Amino acid sequence: MSACIEARSLSKVFTTGKRRIVALEGMSIDVADGEFVCLLGPSGCGKTTVLRIIAGLEPATAGAVLVHGKKVESAGPERGMVFQEFALFPWRTVRRNIEFGLEIRGVSEKSRHEMSSDLIDLVGLKGFEDAHPDELSGGMRQRVGIARALANEPTVLLMDEPFGSLDAQTRNLMQKELLRIWSATKKTVLFVTHSVDEAVFLADRIVVMTARPGTVREIIPVSLPRPRDRTSAEFIAVRGRVLAELDEEFEKAREKELSLD
Amino acid sequence: MSWNSALMARVKDAVSANWYSIVLGLVAVILFVVFWALVSQYLSDSGSDLSVYVPGPKSVAEAFVSSFMEPVPGLDYTRMGDMIASSLMRVFWGFLLALAVALPVGLAMGTFRSVEAMGRPLVEMFRPIPPLAWVPVFLMVFKSFWGPIGIVFVGVFFPILINVIFGVKSVDQKLIDAARTLGARRGAVFTKVVIPTIVPYLMTGIKVGLGVGWMCIVAAEMMPIQGGTGVGYYVWLSADYGRYEFTYATMLVIGLLSILTTGVAEIFEKRVSRWMGMR
Q1: Cβ contacts of residue A240 below 8 Å, gap of 6+?
Q2: Does the ipTM exceed 0.85?
């Protein structure tokens, strides 16, 4: 397996007025082609910032990101992104949301229609082609978000807590759906979450981040075969290990907050 | 089944509630007309000087009908239809010019900080001036046709401008991020994210602007200048001739036209928002 994403000692400093917040410090990760990696950490640890830097939506203060050896300078269609709040265009139908990237690339109407039809099948939205986002449930909206990102045939799928605003049932269903789509499309996935359960269920490897300033604390491989059984002893063992790592960081983050006040 | 019957019950409720308020509304209107007729009758019976200012409902209704059928008192060859046409024409041109200028200026001010820094003080300087304050100068300089159009322009310009600027600033940053990760550059972000976002704001600006424009045209036409036309002008002229039943009939026409123009704007707005998939 060759390296798909290489993030080299990323740092990010936010300055608002006189306050200077170091969000990331020397954060490095590698993601191999076709790999599913979860980025896990306490809130405010900068995991979303890592994703936004890789997406090219935000510049790093220091460090660099290479995707297939090419330096990331700005956002680009080869890195698809799925957002927590879905970020669908409310004035576009399901189909036209999915076709957005294709329109930008100047794909003809006929091939757009074919490609979006395939994606609508893939994510299970048949019959909802002409619905608008406000007519859909949260889970269905995120199916549109995933299909829209896939339409550009990206090599990488960056997912920023995509199921964070869904209820528990829908969330579990969407996790299974995502794994199905992932194995059908063989994309490289970098998935940000704060749910240990979600990370253990989905990931090939879990990158546990430290509290702010964020960097890599530990990389935990999950070698359980899929589909994974949340109630199995092995699952619970991995879950326990990840939780232990994370708990220490939660504690650190809390202490830091208290000392700041 | 039960869902269906529940829906039917709700529809019935809505209809009967609607009938109830329609009947109440009619009762109020009838009461008002009766009160008006009584006052008018009383004033004329008692030989009051005020009698001339309060013609009865019947004579106003007759004036209303006749104003459409034959030339109105004080103006040869001019019927109500001609006056409506000339007023509507002015509102239309003033509105169109205002839209043509306010939309690009608003987009530029909302998008570029430097343009806003330059434009903001000018806007804040001119916006508080009531459009009608421009009447004397505009009528002197632009005369009877373009003068009122200029007044309408001023009245319509600011509501559209302010709403467009606000619309551009309301663009959801997340949608811009999403568009960028899908390969959109500045131009595409503008045409495919910013423009669709401002449409509802623009429609609000247009609706408010039309209301203001209609107020402006009536007052602007009232100026007693050579070659005056339009409904506003005739409100003044008929009163000058002491034909108050025609003054009230014209006022009625103005009210109806105002309802009509904002009604058209509202239908248009609904169409646009349905076309854009928003309700």
Answers
A1: none
A2: yes
Whole-angstrom distance, CA of residue A51 vs CA of residue A42: 15
Residues facing A11 on adjacent strands: A62
Question: With contact defined as beta carbons under 8 Å apart, do B176 and B189 qualify?
Answer: yes
pLDDT in tens, A136-182: 999 999 999 999 999 999 999 999 999 999 999 999 999 999 999 99
The pLDDT value given to residue B1: 43
C-alpha B44/C-alpha B49 separation (Å) is 9
Contact assessment for residue B227 and residue B263, using Cβ atoms and an 8 Å cutoff = no
Distance separating alpha carbons of residues A205 and A35, to the nearest angstrom: 8
pLDDT band at B3 (very low <50, low <70, confident <90, very high): low
The residue in chain A having the minimum alpha-carbon distance to the alpha carbon of residue B175 is A87
In the numeric block, the tokens 């960028």 are attached to: B180
Residues A30, A207 contacting (CB under 8 angstroms): no
> Rounded to an integer, what distance in angstroms lies between the CA atom of residue B51 and that of residue B102?
47
Alpha carbons A77 and A258: distance in angstroms, whole number? 42
Single-letter code of the amino acid located at B177:
D
| Look-up of token digits 């009383």 | B42
Going by pLDDT thresholds of 50, 70 and 90, the confidence category of residue B278 is low
For chain A, residues with pLDDT lower than 70 are 1, 260-261
Interatomic CA distance for residues B255 and B259, integer angstroms: 6
The confidence score (pLDDT) of residue B279 equals: 43
CA separation, residue A89 to residues A65, A77, A94, A125 (Å): 29, 17, 9, 17
- Of the candidates B174, B192, B199, the beta carbon closest to that of A83 is on B174
B188 CA to chain A: closest CA distance, Å?
7
For strands A36-40 and A205-209, give the pairing: parallel
Q: Report chain B's mean pLDDT, rounded to a whole number.
A: 89
A112 close to B (CB below 8 A):
no
Q: Which of A91, A148, A158 sits opposite B182 (nearest CB)?
A: A148
- Tokens encoding B152: 């309408």
Separation CA B273–CA B200 (nearest Å): 7
A81 and B177 within 8 Å at the Cβ level: the answer is yes
